[in-house]
Every structure is written in C-alpha cells, then in structure tokens.
Amino acid sequence: MNDWLDSSDDEPAQGGLFESAAPGADRVDSVPASGVSVLGAPLAVRMRPQSLGEVVGQDHLLGPGAPLRRLVEGSGASSVLLYGPPGTGKTTLASLISQATGRRFEALSALSAGVKDVRAVIDLARRRLVAGEQTVLFIDEVHRFSKTQQDALLSAVENRIVLLVAATTENPSFSVVSPLLSRSLVLQLQSLTDDDIRQVLDRAVTDPRGLGGTVSLTEDAENHLVRLAGGDARRALTALEAAAGTVLDRDGDPVVDLAAVESSVDEAAVRYDRDGDQHYDVTSAFIKSLRGSDVDAALHYLARMIVAGEDPRFIARRLMIHASEDVGMADPTALQTATAAAQVVQLVGMPEAQLALAQATIHIATAPKSGAVTAALGAAMADVRAGKAGAVPAHLRDGHYAGAAKLGNAIGYKYPHDNPDGVLAQQYPPDELVGVDYYDPTTHGVERELTTRVGKLRRIVRG
After folding, report:
1. What pLDDT digit, counting tens, does each position of 419-462 carry?
2. Is residue 422 part of a domain?
3. 409 contacts: CB under 8 Å, gap ≥ 6
4. Residue 11, in any domain of the structure
C-alpha cells in the first residue's frame, strides 16, 4: 500500500489527517476517521489516500483476499503489526482500517506514551464497547515500548477491546514481545518504486486536493523528485510543494522545472542515471576508490549514489563484496563491518542507514589491502576446472555408515586434537595436489602475522 503518509519514524506528524493533539502531547485525541478538514494542510497530508483505490504500491499485500485488503475493506478483525522502512504509510493504513470499519481512531506514540496512557486508552475503548462503539488503537514506534508497556496491551488485544495496529521500523521478531506477536498479523511493507512515486506526483499535480493543475511538471524535474524521494512519496511531495510555491510566486508560466526544484530544495541535481552509463561509471569509480584506499573519493561517490536515490541494498552488496575481494585477511573485521551495514539497511532503512554505509566505506577504504583471498580461490577453482580433482584420500572419507570400514574409509585418520599442538602431519589434498600452495599471504595488516603462521603449518602438516 505504500501510501507513504505515516507520521512516524522520528518526526512528528505535520497537521496529520487524524492527529489533533498539540505538539508534545502524550496522546492523540480521538476523532472520527472521516470528515476532517485538511484545508491549508501540507500537500503530503492533502494527498493522503482516502480509499483503497488511491493506494499505490504494496501489491504483494493488496491482492484479492489478502489479509491487508480484508482489513482495509472492513472484513478482517485481526490486530496487525506493520513492519517496514520509514515513509511506507503505516499511519494511513491504520486510518483506512478505522474508516472502513467505522471505528473510533486512537493513536499513541511510543516515544512519549507510558503505561498510564496505554491503560487510559484501553479504559476508554472498553467504555465505548459497552455503548456499541469499537476502537482502532494505532501505536507508532511500538518497538520503543518496554516489555511492561507491551504486556499492558495483551488483554485488550486478546479480548478485542481494541483492534491494534502497531507500526515499527524494526523486525518485530526481535523488538515485540512474543505474546503480542502471536496475537497479531505481521505485515511487511516495502518502499515505493520509482513508478509509484511518479504516479503520486502526477496525481498531486492534477488532483483538486493537491495543486489542481495550477502548475505543470517537466520530465527533468519529475526525475529529480523521484531521485530525491528515495522511495518515500512524502519527501517527494514536500519538495514538489516547495517548488510549486516558488513558480507560483513569480510572473510567467507556472512550470516546475529542474531549476525550480533545485532552488527550492537547495540540493543540486545529480547527473546519475541508474539504468545508464553514469550508474556504471559512478559505481566503478566507487569500487576503484575503495581498492585504491582513497577514502575521500570513495565517500564522494557514495554520496553521489545516495543523493541520486541508488538502492542502498546495492551499495551494501558492493561493500560486502569488496571487504573480501580487496581487504580479505589483511583486516578480517572489514567484512563484519560491511555485513553490519547491510543489516542496518534492512532493519532501519534510509536515511539513517546512510551513516552505516559511510562507516563501512571508511573502514574498507582505510584498511590494509590484500588480494590473496581472491587469488587463492581463483587458483584453486582453475585447478578444479582443469580436471585436477583426484580421489579424496581414504582416511578422510566418511566412515559413519555401515560398510564404510570394509571400503577402507576413515581408517588411519589422525585426530588433530589428540596432539598437544592441535596440528599434525597428515595428507589432506588428493595425491596430484600434494604440495600445491594456493594461499600466498601478503605482508599487509593482519596477513603479516599469517605469513609466518601459514608457512609453519604447511611444514608440520606436510611432514
């Protein structure tokens, strides 16, 4: 559904359609789920989907009979945990569910609400239920609730005093208590695609709730807005609104062009096409800067990719690859850092994950370099492809099945831990590869120590 207008993820709602509390209030007062005026509200709020038909994205959750569609259409009754990156529409989903079912809408933020606030809302919902009125309780940033606060919801959810819709940017398997998790339907939302963002922008330009055709949008400007959005339509609409205000305040045709967008959002357009030559050129320069230990150039190309809206998962994959390919055993912790950055991309999302990508970039660029791992594997694979794959020595073969001993399998195998040094003389490779060296450590970083150790191990093992 990716309707993008959740008021979550570390920033307060700006005149949200269903949120009427003053800034800093612990609880959002309940209001009917429809009929609230949004005149004068930001463009992103005015363009919030009012029905399932206006929703873009999340096709994997909105198919016929899918749980999310049933909830939004009012035929489902399960509490739900919405898990996804910032800007994927978690608040709007909750409001659509409330609107479809005719229930009252209550919202709490885990950033400010405590157990007292949770119990107050549940007591209010219980009184309403006696009067025949049901309540949808939306909890933003639910992963920030303590175990005690989450436990306070269990009875109300189990007895359906409230229909809980909770939002989190973190994997609920790790951030939500098991009893609450088992009582809820977990749905993972995804960022909007570029085509989704274009659809949202086109609608905002023409829809009477939006700009109502008062401006036109050039292709270059739209492409730049899509890049700036990074999968978040609220960000794109905010930039569009700023640019539209700029052109409407001056004489001439109200055309939102690239210059208007650039001047409005104070961010230069990046000449970068994710499907064209610039994509490959910038990626190549990023890789070669990492390999060449130019940390500043690597950060420059990283910034170009981020600003241009490159998929952060693509960047994370490149970092993991080059942590092994270009750093390898010279600094084994580089791969750990790159892998951690990829996990941050998955669990937290952008824009916060850009810092983890930068950290991994700095680590890899400044680490000692070694291509020994790449060369070792390449040499070993070349031998295998050349047919040098002789029989596994009999004493190394599997001896855990009946009849293995009769075949001579595992007979004569020497257990290294029986030796005080943990290493002993024994043939491991096939006969034709005895004495072949694949791994040649460099003198860079940690591999400097391995140079001596590998030589010693080979002398012992080979007798």
Report:
1. 898 999 999 898 888 999 999 999 999 889 998 889 999 999 98
2. yes
3. 394, 397, 398, 399
4. no
Residues 261 and 282 in one domain: no
Q: Which two tokens stand for residue 195?
A: 């085509």
Cα torsion angle, 170, 175, 178, 181, sign = negative
Backbone angles phi and psi of 292, in degrees to 5: -85, 0
pLDDT tens digit string along 70-118?
777 766 667 888 887 766 777 777 777 777 767 788 888 887 888 888 8
pLDDT tens digit sequence for 32-72: 333 333 446 889 889 888 877 788 888 888 777 787 777 77
For residue 418, what are the domain limits? Answer: 388-461
Residue 70 sits in the same domain as residue 181 = yes
One-letter amino acid at 81 equals L
Residues 48 and 119 reside in one and the same domain: yes
> Rounded to whole angstroms, how far apart are CA atoms 10 and 17?
18
Alpha-carbon distance of 333 to 220, in angstroms, equals 42
Q: Taking the model in full, what pTM does it have?
A: 0.53
Whether 305 is covered by a domain: the verdict is yes
> Residue 383 domain-assigned?
no
- Give the CATH number for residue 428: 1.10.3710.10
Query: Tens digits of per-residue pLDDT, 148-166?
Result: 888 888 888 888 898 888 8
Question: Which of 179, 104, 177, 176 is closest to 137 using CA atoms?
Answer: 104
Cα–Cα nearest to 440, from 371, 369, 367: 371
Same-domain status, 105 and 123: yes
